[in-house]
Amino acid sequence: MADDDSELDRLDPQPATLKLSTGLQVDLVRLRTRQFFRLLRVLTHGAGPAMMRAGLDFKAGAEQFTAQLLTLVVMSIPDAEQEAVAFLQSMLKPSGLAEGRKLTKQQDEDNEALWERFNTDLFNPELEDLIDLIEAIVRQEAPELQALGKRLQQMMKMFQATGQDKEEAEPEASQQDLASSGSSPARSTSSPASTDGETSASSTSRSAGSGRSSRRSPAAASATG
Length: 225
Prior knowledge:
Number of strands: 3
Number of domains: 1
Largest sheet: 3 strands, antiparallel
Number of helices: 9
Helix content: over 70%
Structural class: mainly alpha
Strand content: under 5%
Distance between the termini: 129 Å
Shape: elongated
Mean pLDDT: 76
Low-confidence stretches: 197-215, 217-225
Radius of gyration: 39 Å
């Protein structure tokens, strides 16, 4: 029954609420396309590439993978300060926002005040708030990110098994073949340009033709005479 409840929570999650050291309460939102790209910026601009080479095991247990991913994100933050803050802000929103198509003037003012405080408190958050928020975000999104990583690994294996990763090298080989085959006619046409027997033979054939024509002229003259 606990597994069923956990699965239902994944399908229809309730937003987790955290309280910052400033007293502001924030809600976690779910990772979507734009947030995912911002997370990738943190990992690729920071220490992520080096740690990825060290190993992020998508086949590990849930807790092990979550710990690896959390370490990866935290260690990437110092070299990706702006990207990390932008990612953090995109994964949160002020708690208690009034929602709906038609809001009263007071509700609009209250929402604006909450967003102003949100932007102020998260412009340069406290270190303890940063770690707490990153941990909460990673724990929330780790199952989806692990599943996505497994799918990408399977796609890469299929890509390599079908030889598609080697298709780019084939046109280069064919161009070399064309270059080598195109160079051989060039050598054959250049050989008659030598000054040896082939040149004298060609001149002999031209003189023979002219000799035959000169012998026919006297014969034709005697016949008419």
